[in-house]
Write a structure and sequence with these properties.
The structure holds 2 protein chains of 2 kinds.
Chain A: H1 2-21, H2 37-71, H3 89-117, E1 127-134, E2 137-142, E3 147-150, E4 152-156, E5 161-167, E6 172-176, E7 180-185, E8 191-195, E9 201-207, E10 220-225, H4 227-238, H5 249-260, H6 296-304, H7 306-309, H8 319-322, H9 328-339, H10 348-353
Parallel strand pairs in A: 1-5, 4-10
Antiparallel strand pairs in A: 1-2, 2-3, 5-8, 6-7, 6-9, 9-10
Helix pairs in contact in A: 2-3, 5-9, 6-9
Chain B: H1 2-20, H2 24-52, H3 63-97, H4 106-125, H5 143-146, H6 151-179, H7 192-223, H8 237-271, H9 278-291, H10 307-319, H11 321-335, H12 344-367, H13 369-375, H14 379-409, H15 415-441, H16 458-488, H17 526-532, E1 547-549, H18 555-572, H19 580-599, E2 605-607, H20 609-612
Antiparallel strand pairs in B: 1-2
The chains are: A alpha+beta, B mainly alpha.
Chain lengths: ~350, ~625
């Protein structure tokens, strides 16, 4: 089975290689270039079903073309009445039985893959991350590690990671096309899926279930690093001192402002607070609020007017904005504070550099 | 001066005629006009979506408004455009195809139409009253239960009212086809379009109540504080998904089967051959309808139902490909050996075969649950359902309109304009949607207000938008065609296509009573049977006699208007309790009209046989 699938894969890879080069999407985003187990299983199934279906399509098109070429009305034959055939038992049996066989060819691997991807037998021996989806951000709580992150999910390569997913508000769907297919997050029950990244890298994740105005701005990242790097990251994250004093004066001011206001929703360091994204390693984030280019100017703009950049997000109703308590200078100081929150050497850079 | 006055009274009389009509032919025209109107609105919404997505991070519309547009595009196209346009064809054709003088319940037929129209108007009124619904046409809870404003309330009440109309129409056609068939019109002699109408009516009967129940629960959650879909109150949002798709999946077969029926009429007529494998076609239709109820959870593979449920629904879904494949091959072999004449109706029908085969292919691919984890809720799915709904249903409606236009309006649509429409729409369609299969797998989820720059999605989206403009051009040319044909087209005979079925046995224009004498049906393709024996007309099954016809009535219009008023009352009573007054007034109007209908005998009227020859009822 495995060898046969491998052959199909090679064959397909050769035939579609030009297509890939000419653009099958962006690496680490597209489902056409799988970098993880779930995405690979899905793509294999896509390929099998596509091949079978192309065969069917070719047969239909051959008959279709023959019919149109041979039996189109010719000049002077306008009144010709063809033979009125009622049907043909043999033919009808053929085009009932052959499709059934073709469908079995697709159905068997489908059922196998569906059970394979739902396998939870080694869940207890693996790293478990509790994922909470919110309008419009993702919260990741590493079970038993006392680590929480938001937006960027760090994982080690080559291991199964179990994600236990739930939503705090409306339906969302967790999708990292290059690593694995989707799983919805529901408010009432926990859904479990596992992911395994083959190579290091920063992978784009997207919300795939309509969840409000900023549904299209609910991106997140999976940062896959080597197991050693991951262990170091865990250690660094566990040893974070949430009260560590920043170096610059501006950032110190920012810290004070943060602790008087932002801290009621945002946590720094391990904390059960999940009203808003955990900002422990904000200095290493790949983007602001999931989608905005990471730089100080944008961060200040975000702090001062989140509604403009992400319609309908809950930060817009924060007291400091409702009461207009923050001026631009203070926003600058908070930004300085947040940008220097770099608790670990292991960053998205580490995932990108190990090529 | 005198002529304008005459025209004005003329217009008033025509208006009153259409407001009160219970004639299936006129109700068909009403469905066509209103369905066409909503089709244009839905098309405008589609264009707004495509313009927004022409380039990355575009800001043609705001994020919240975009969600309103995409919700209304889906809802309008399914409930207010595709359904009524199909009902237009059914009303125009089915009673004629079975040799009946009207449907079984002409009064209900009118009621069904007015309920649909007022429901649609209520839903679209939301645009002007604080914003349209924004939770998607699927209205998944809790997004729909927590959506601010009244948009989703308009969705609930609008669909509830128009859904009641659809249910009434479905029951009406069931009874019509069971009871009103002409002598000799056995079930296995029914034309395929009538068969598909029959099966579809049964699907409506069983599918729409699920929507009705779902909408009521949603209404209670939003307007009366219940918590059926609220997890915090012990409810469950996944139940809405089940209820919606238990309705929603049969709904797509409700749309596509009549289109299959249209092609099964058009292809034999213009290939000059009887339908290949008629019996197999009938059983395939019934089987598709039956299986359509067993597969709803394939819309929910990623909800977390577990591998057993996913596998069962995956395999059941694949099974539908078998009867659909049977149909495709039967159509191909109907053409095989024929004498194929290609005109506009035929162009739509012929292009349907490869287009729908592509949609069916991706349908089977989507059925593979573990692969669907990638396709689900991406542009791949968007591409798939537009291939089946546009490539199947809309192509079918165009084919049906070109084919039956002379029956409905006495004139043949202009062929040149028809071909321009076809080619622009057909090319535009494939340009718009083929590329979307790839966009989906390249990482573009559906219902995205913006896609980000530098993610490899720019070119595909740009091509897609260009295609959408071509489709718009095609639609505009079709409108011009309708105007040109109406004003300049020449009247044709009652049988311009050398037809095979009973609707072509009637003179042009169709008399009010359809058949002067009920025809005797002696085989499949009843008219063709007579033609092969050298006769020009049907053999009558009865002597010439007085014809009993139903009376016109304004009551269906009043009943629907009452529900329309009550709808506003229900929506606004949570803001201000005095709006309950509108509920009482509206319901009072409706119930009062129902009371009048119940106590007042209305036995219809007779057209006397002496008057028939003098042109009565024309």
């Amino acid at each position: 089975m495995k060898g046969w699938m491998g052959k199909v894969r090679t064959l397909l890879l050769l035939s579609v290689l030009p297509l890939i080069l000419s653009g099958c999407g962006k690496e680490n985003l597209t489902a056409f270039l799988p970098k993880g187990y779930g995405a690979q299983v899905s793509l294999d199934l896509i390929v099998i079903s596509l091949i079978v279906m192309i065969v069917v399509f070719i047969v239909v098109m051959i008959i279709y073309t023959m019919v149109l070429v041979r039996y189109r009305q010719k000049k002077g034959q306008e009144n010709f009445i063809p033979k009125q055939t009622e049907g043909n038992k043999a033919l009808e049996i053929i085009w009932t039985v052959i499709p059934i066989i073709l469908l079995v060819i697709i159905a068997v691997p489908t059922v196998a893959a569906t059970f394979n991807l739902a396998d939870e037998s080694d869940k207890d021996d693996s790293l478990n991350v509790n994922v909470t989806a919110n309008q419009y951000w993702w919260h990741f709580n590493y079970q038993g590690e006392e680590i929480q992150t938001s937006q960027d999910l760090y994982i080690p390569t080559g291991e199964k990671i179990y994600l236990n997913m739930i939503s705090s508000d409306v339906l969302h769907s967790f999708w990292v096309p290059s690593i694995a297919g989707k799983m919805d997050t529901n408010p009432e029950n926990e859904n479990t899926m596992y992911i395994e990244a083959y190579e290091e890298g920063v992978y784009w994740g997207k919300c795939a279930e309509l969840c409000g105005p900023s549904h299209s701005l609910m991106d997140f990242k999976i940062v896959a690093v080597s197991p050693d790097e991951f262990d170091q990251w865990v250690e660094d994250m566990q040893n974070v001192d949430p009260e560590a004093e920043p170096e610059t004066a501006s950032a110190q001011e920012g810290q004070e402002l943060f602790e008087n206001s932002c801290i009621s929703c945002h946590a720094i360091g391990s904390s059960p607070t999940a009203l808003a994204p955990n900002l422990t390693n904000f200095g290493d984030r790949t983007a602001i609020a999931g989608v905005i280019d990471y730089n100080k100017e944008n961060l200040v703009e975000w702090i001062l007017d989140p509604e403009k950049l992400k319609e309908g997000n809950k930060m817009s109703s924060a007291p400091y904005l409702v009461n207009d308590e923050l001026n631009e200078e203070e926003a600058n100081q908070i930004a300085d504070y947040l940008l220097q929150l770099k608790p670990s050497e292991i960053t998205p850079e580490s995932a990108n550099n190990n090529e | 001066m005198s002529t304008t006055t005459a025209q004005r009274t003329g217009f008033g009389a025509v208006l009153w005629d259409y407001l009160t009509t219970v004639d299936h032919k006129k109700i068909g025209i009403l469905y066509l006009i209103s369905g066409g109107f909503f089709f244009l609105i839905g098309g405008l919404e589609a264009m707004a979506i495509r313009i927004q997505l022409i380039k990355p991070e575009n800001d043609f519309v705001s994020a919240g408004f975009y969600n309103e547009i995409l919700t209304m595009h889906g809802t309008t196209m399914i409930f207010l455009a595709a359904m009524p346009l199909i009902f237009a064809l059914m009303n125009a054709v089915v009673p004629l195809q079975i040799g009946a003088r009207d449907v079984a319940f002409p009064f209900l037929n009118s009621l069904g139409f007015w309920l649909f129209l007022f429901g649609g108007l209520l839903l679209n009124a939301s645009w002007f009253l604080g914003g349209a619904p924004d939770a998607g046409w699927t209205a998944y809870a809790p997004l729909s239960t927590t959506s601010p404003g009244h948009g989703v309330d308009f969705y609930i009440l609008g669909l509830q009212i128009s859904g009641a109309g659809t249910l009434i129409a479905g029951i009406n056609f069931l009874v019509t086809i069971v009871n009103m068939r002409a002598p000799g019109m056995t079930y296995m002699r029914l034309p395929l379009f009538t068969w598909t109408t029959f099966v579809v009516s049964a699907l409506i009967l069983f599918a729409f109540p699920a929507l009705t129940v779902g909408l009521f629960l949603l209404m209670f959650d939003r307007l009366f504080g219940s918590g059926f879909f609220n997890a915090n109150m012990g409810g469950n949002s996944v139940i809405w998904e089940h209820l919606f798709w238990i309705f929603g999946h049969p709904e797509v077969y409700i749309l596509i089967l009549p289109a299959f029926g249209v092609f099964s009429e058009v292809l034999p007529t213009f290939a000059k051959k009887r339908l290949f494998g008629y019996t197999a076609m009938v059983f395939a239709t019934v089987l598709i309808g039956f299986l359509g109820f067993m597969v709803w959870a394939h819309h929910m593979f990623t909800v977390g139902l577990g591998p057993a449920a996913n596998s069962i629904f995956a395999v059941a879904t694949m099974a539908i490909a078998v009867p659909t494949g049977i149909k495709i091959f039967n159509w191909l072999f109907t053409l095989w050996g024929g004498n194929i004449q290609i005109n506009s109706a035929m162009l739509w029908s012929l292009s349907f075969i490869p287009t729908f085969t592509l949609g069916g292919m991706t349908g089977v691919m989507l059925a593979a649950a573990a692969a669907d984890y990638q396709y689900h809720d991406t542009y791949f799915v968007v591409a798939h359902f537009h291939y089946v709904i546009v490539g199947g249903v809309v192509f079918g409606i165009f084919a049906g309109l070109h084919y039956w236009w002379p029956r409905m309006f006495g004139k043949i649509l202009n062929e040149t304009l028809g071909k321009i429409t076809f080619w622009t729409f057909f090319i535009g369609f494939h340009l718009t949607f083929f590329i979307q299969h790839f966009l989906g797998l390249m990482g573009m989820p559906r219902r995205y207000w913006v896609f980000l720059a530098d993610q490899g999605l720019d070119t595909g989206n740009f091509i897609s938008t260009i295609g959408a403009f071509l489709m718009a051009v095609g639609t505009i040319v079709f409108l011009i065609n309708v105007i040109v044909t109406t004003s300049k087209g020449e009247k044709v005979s009652g049988d311009p296509w050398d037809g095979r079925t009973l609707e072509w046995a009637i003179p042009n224009p169709t008399p009010h009573y359809n058949f002067k004498q009920t025809p005797l049906v002696r085989g499949l393709d009843a008219l063709w049977v007579e033609k092969t024996e050298g006769r020009k007309e049907m053999t009558p099954a009865e002597p010439l006699d007085d014809i009993h016809m139903p009376n016109a009535s304004i009551l269906p219009f009043i009943m629907s208007l009452g529900l329309f008023i009550a709808g506003f009352g229900f929506i606004y009573q949570i803001d201000n309790i005095s709006w309950l007054l509108a509920v009482f007034i509206g319901m009072g109007i409706t119930l009062g009209a129902m009371f009048v209908r119940s106590v007042k005998d209305d036995l219809g009227h007779h057209i006397h046989k002496e008057d028939l020859d003098k042109g009565a009822g024309l």
